[in-house]
Amino acid sequence: MAEKNITWVSEFLLIAFTDRPAWALPLFLLFLLIYLLTLLGNLGMMSLIRADGRLHTPMYFFLGHLSFVDVCYSSAIVPQMLAVLLEHGATLSYSRCATQFFLFTFFGSIDCYLLAIMAYDRYVAVCRPLLYVTVMTEKALWGLVTGAYGAGLSSAFVRTVTAFTLSFCGNNEIDFIFCDLPPLLKLTCGDSYTQEVVIIVFAIFVIPACMVVILVSYLFIIVAIVRIPSAGGRAKTFSTCASHLVVVSLFFGTLIFMYLRDNSGHSSQEDRVVSVFYTTVIPMLNPLIYSLRNKEVKEALRKVLKRAQLS
């Protein structure tokens, strides 16, 4: 009789921020502005890299792909979040929730892999400058990027299939901005140990593995910078890595806080704030950080603006 009374979930209700109706319109306008700036900044960065021949280097090749992924990553989350705010909640079918989870995992994983690849690129540039041209060939660049997309696809596929073979029953409300793993696990019933182990194992191949590559790369970079005799030379070398280091710290810092911690004692409101930061704010900040910190980008932007004024 107890099993017959179980209500199995066939759709999910996103209710993030609906507990404060007065905040709906201000938050809608704020997130809409952030999303538009994200599109403008990242699409602008992609166009700038494509238009200026001085930016046709491995570092900006990877940055162009990072901007593309950030646009897709943000677009998988923010429009749905805007609908939740506008309609004071949004109902998602089982398949639509799974699709959103897949896209978020796919593009989020690629972001991690690209940041790790960019750290390796900086390592070769700083520690092996004479071999840089022979190591970072066009074939190698496309191989690394293709590997990032392929690894992201396989990780997203396995994690999505595993997550959505779980049994969901009872309450179908997700007090979150999108269909993410932590709130979904709260709705599971029955034995989910095997699926959770698979999900965790594949998570280890993304966040911690990429962090190891980044940390090892920057360890060698720091050693190389310390060995440079002049202070000016050390500052110039470090400046080539500063933008990437800032982006890595922001992105991985929030992911670690969200996924690699003990979830007990943490409120849903705290989780929502963190998730907003890594899904909406960071994709907006990335092109801004790179444009402010990189002399080549600023010069290319001045060139485009000057050309626009003359025309």
Instruction: Sketch the major β-sheet.
Output: 3 strands, mixed
Structural class: mainly alpha
Shape: globular
Mean pLDDT metric = 84
- Taken in chain order, the helices and strands follow as EHHHEHHHEHHHHHH
Q: Helix fraction?
A: over 70%
Q: Can you tell me about this structure?
A:
- There is one protein chain.
- Helices cover 73% and strands 3% of the residues.
- The protein has twelve helices and three strands, in the order E-H-H-H-E-H-H-H-E-H-H-H-H-H-H.
- Strands 2-1-3 form a three-stranded mixed sheet.
- Helix 1 (24-51) packs antiparallel against helix 2 (58-75), helix 2 (58-75) runs antiparallel to helix 11 and helix 4 runs antiparallel to helix 10 (231-259).
SSE inventory with pairings:
Elements lengths: L10 E4 L9 H28 L6 H18 L2 H10 L2 E4 H34 L4 H4 L2 H26 L9 E2 L6 H5 L7 H12 L2 H20 L4 H29 L8 H26 L1 H16 L1
Parallel strand pairs: 1-3
Antiparallel strand pairs: 1-2
Helix pairs in contact: 1-2, 1-3, 1-11, 2-4, 2-11, 4-6, 4-9, 4-10, 6-8, 9-10, 10-11, 11-12
